[in-house]
Amino acid sequence: MTTETLHLEAVEPGDALPELDVPITVTLVVGGALASRDFTPVHHDKAAAQAQGMGDVFMNILTTNGLVGRFVTDWAGPDAVVENVAIKLGAPNLPGDVMKLSGSVTEKDDAAGTVKVEVAGRNGWGNHVTGSVRVRLPRGDR
User: Does any domain span residue 141?
Assistant: First the structure.
């Protein structure tokens, strides 16, 4: 995590974000579901998840969304403002795996002061999440 401010002028399309490994644990899956008030049994009850054909509880989209936001804001710094998150889920995140988040800047809008970051989170099954985040960065001249 950075505590430094990333300024718009320092970012260009093609810039890669530092990768982030997120170990998937039962605590993370269940805690994320409870924190987001998602009481669907497959996110906290192993037997319910197994009845649906999964080996264990699995991460909900709200937890994934939060982790994607954290990934981008850790890179962008404390003065960044997330304006839009658009993600799509793929393979489930199950305890015992690691989600490897990666991303790169694909667009820069100097007039709006924003950049678009394409993000992917892979685990042992493939892409758990893909999508984009639009973030407003401060200008260095202000």
Answer: no
Domain total of the chain: 1
Q: Is 88 left (phi over 0), alpha (psi -120 to 50) or beta?
A: beta
Phi, psi of 11 (to 5 degrees): -115, 140
* Domain CATH code at residue 59: 3.10.129.10
CB contact set of 131 (below 8 Å; sequence gap of 6+): 68, 85, 86, 87, 88, 118, 119
Show the tokens assigned to 9: 């002028």
Q: Beta partners for 130?
A: 88, 120
DSSP string, 13-51: TTPBPPPEEEE--HHHHHHHHHHTT---GGGT-HHHHHH
| Mean model confidence pLDDT for the chain | 96
Query: What is this structure's pTM?
Result: 0.93
